[in-house]
Amino acid sequence: MEDEQEPPLQPRTQIQGRVLFLTICAAGIGGTFQFGYNLSIINAPTVRQNSVGEKAYPVEADWHLCPQHIQEFTNETWWVRTGWPLPDHLVLLVWSLIVSLYPLGGLLGALLAGPFAIMLGRKKSLLVNNIFVVAAAILFGSSRRAGSFEMIMLGRLLMGISAGVSMNIQPMYLGESAPKELRGTVAMTSAIFTALGIVMGQVVSLRELLGGPQAWPLLLASCLVPGVLQLASLPLLPESPRYLLIDCGDRATCLAALQRLRGTTEVMVELAELEEERAACRGRRARRPWELFKDGTFRRQVISLVVLGSAMELCGNDSIYAYASSVFREAGVPEDKVQYAIVGTGCCELLTAFISCVVIERVGRRVLLMGGYSLMTCWGSVFTAALCLQSSFPWMPYLAMSCIFAFILSFGIGPAGVTGILATELFDQTARPAAYMVCGALMWTMLFLVWLGFPFLMEGLSHFFYVPFLGVCVCGAIYTGFFLPETKGKTFLEISEELHRLNFPGQSQGPMWRSPEVIRSTEL
């Protein structure tokens, strides 16, 4: 009789797998996809010539016309208002503010993500976050008709806030909703949607589509489409079961969410694990960001988060993107085809994000991080040598172009996705929102500093501009190899116990777990 009852469970399990897949898509399309999309549609820098060696070398990409159109709109708007053209240096200043307000908004959003996740929950935070998207889209779409470049600046700030919130809450939501054997794979989808957003932004921004002089308001306002898709789909999907039980104490709703995400055969086993984790958090309120730096029980976790989070932003991947168009020209790519070669770089990162998603639960987090940073060190060194010798050998530009693709592939297979999992797996339920606030604030600050300092680095170091980034890649590989614990296939409780032993090597006993009674871990 038991054999006759087992087959009907398989289609039911497949249905539950589809619910998890739809949850990933609904969270990703309005989450990290928005970050990658808005990063690529406007952040391609404008043309500026810089003397490198004996050649006039275009330091920054000009394949993207949106910056040029927005600067022309700024100048025209100022002319209509005052009767005088805006000086070139002020036009550049306005453009710099438009670009830099995005990471500034991201920093503000990262600081809001923790309180949002605690007070509203993971799913509702992602839904409420679309208020910023809708407001920004209205500002972008109306800016030209209203003759106001200030509306573009405010819209960029709001989109940055939205990106800061979603980039922290999406991996938190998915990591808490996934089973332990798929937690790494599910969390890696955040990197997939980031890369997908970058590629989609690069494609939509082509001259033949929305990259023309009349269509740029539509290009900026197109961020509304992913937001609407998330608003239409995410309400139909379950909240994080871990949040429902541990933070809210709602066992019935947690059980229903688990049944939708897993199927009835495995729910009771996982529910028992959640009850154990709930017991571990009994009587503890939600941590504040500054408390993580003071508490010795989080010493290894915080150091790992700061070191590897900084390494991901300072490894030079964004700089490689900025330098790509000039290298493609030196390799003989026609001017009108450079934009398609740039799209190819985004496709490389998307490809490796898919590969990492497939192999992460087989090889582990440490292997992908160490391998990624080691390969980036290798290709970055060859890239530097190729730039220095490009005037001596005619085939060196082709080698430099190959190194760009190889470097982006190496970044995508390791640091791009694995780093985002750290805050989910290394911190317990009470400290996770605060950890994401720290991680998000660090990421956006580093991103702003890289964008600010890269032109000066190029001017000062010329062909050797990538040498400082090589040092960061080496440090990232060394730290991962010696200090980062492997979390593959472990429950959150097992990870917490291992980290407790690492933080307090003199103690043979792990943290004292309490019985599962009433818990409210989300008090601010």
Automatic annotation (TrEMBL):
Gene Ontology biological-process annotations: D-glucose import; dehydroascorbic acid transport
PROSITE patterns per the UniProt record, alphabetical: MFS (PS50850), SUGAR_TRANSPORT_2 (PS00217)
Bilayer topology: Multi-pass membrane protein
Pfam family, one: Sugar_tr
Domain Major facilitator superfamily (MFS) profile: from-to ranges: 24-488
Domain of life assignment: Eukaryota
GO CC terms of this entry: endomembrane system; plasma membrane
Transport in keyword set: yes
Cellular compartments annotated: Endomembrane system
Gene3D superfamilies assigned: MFS general substrate transporter like domains
Alphabetized CDD domains for the sequence: MFS_GLUT_Class2 (cd17432)
Keywords: Membrane, Sugar transport, Transmembrane, Transmembrane helix, Transport
MF annotations from Gene Ontology: D-glucose transmembrane transporter activity
Transmembrane segments: 19-37, 90-114, 126-142, 154-174, 186-204, 216-237, 302-323, 338-360, 367-393, 399-423, 435-458, 464-484
Broad class of where this protein is predominantly found: membrane
Similarity comment text for this entry: Belongs to the major facilitator superfamily. Sugar transporter (TC 2.A.1.1) family. Glucose transporter subfamily.
Protein name: Solute carrier family 2, facilitated glucose transporter member 11 isoform X1
Organism of derivation: Hipposideros armiger (Great Himalayan leaf-nosed bat)
Gene (UniProt): SLC2A11
